[in-house]
Design goal:
single chain; about 90 residues; alpha+beta; 3-stranded antiparallel sheet; about 20% helix; elongated
C-alpha cells in the first residue's frame, strides 16, 4: 500500500499539485524504502501536531508531511488541561 501511495504522490507532484500525508506519530511508514527515496526528491515540510488541538476526543500526536506552503500553519498548541487523566 505504501508503494501505491508513493506512486499517487509522484503523479500529483508531476502534475504540479500539492499533497499532505498524515500519519500517527508512532507510525513507521516514513522508514519504508520507497517513501524514503521519494521524500527527498519532493520539497516537503514536516509538521508535528496534535489532533486534540482540532477538537478530537484524544490528544493523538500526528505528523503531517506535505508540499503546500501553508502546511506549517496547521501546527497548534495542545490544551493539555483538557486531556488530563481523571482517576475514577
Amino acid at each position: 500500500m505504501v508503494i501505491r501511495m508513493v506512486i499517487c504522490l509522484m503523479l500529483v507532484t508531476m502534475r504540479g499539485g500539492d499533497w499532505i500525508l498524515e500519519q500517527p506519530a508512532s507510525s513507521l511508514m516514513h522508514v519504508h524504502e520507497r517513501l524514503e527515496r521519494f521524500l527527498p526528491m519532493s520539497k516537503t515540510s514536516k509538521v508535528y501536531m496534535w489532533m486534540g488541538a482540532y477538537g478530537a476526543p484524544t490528544p493523538k500526536p500526528s505528523v503531517l508531511r506535505g508540499t503546500p506552503s501553508w502546511i506549517m500553519s496547521l501546527k497548534r498548541p495542545l490544551n493539555k488541561a483538557k486531556f488530563k487523566r481523571t482517576e475514577g
